[in-house]
Amino acid sequence: MNTTHHSARNRRPRIRFRAAGLLVAGVIVAASGCSSGQPVETKAKPATTVTATVTTTPEPGPTVTETVTAKPKPRPTVTVTHTTTARVAAAGSGSSGSGGSSQDDTGTCSIRSNAGNCYSAGQFCRNSDHGSVTTNASGAAIKCTYSSNAWRWTYA
After folding, report:
1. For a 10 Å CB count at each end of the chain, is N or C smaller?
2. How high is the pLDDT of residue 92?
3. Annotated region Disordered: where (predicted)?
């Protein structure tokens, strides 16, 4: 047992001796390479810098056009009303009278239909004409009255 322990103890100084020898050899080799006496020049090379700039322009998108058709606005309804005074002959006058006043009354309708014609007895009345008095085309007085379930023009 002593021999094994003794040989391990002898190995350690040998390893230390070898390590010290290698260290000394490395220092000698390094010193001999630097002792040539020539200075070593080092020049700094300029660094090359590359800068790239990319500018992109997006392509224009499709143009969307929407056509809107304007609807015409409703126009106001225009109603023209002609108002004239009707001349009514006196109740006692006959057809053999002067005749001058009957010629003035002929064709003077104060109320006309939507088509522009004079009303005659028996025709239906408009709602706006209920109770009104006018003359027919020959000048006879007619009135809008309610009879037989309807408003009609009758001789006044």
Report:
1. N
2. 44
3. 57-78
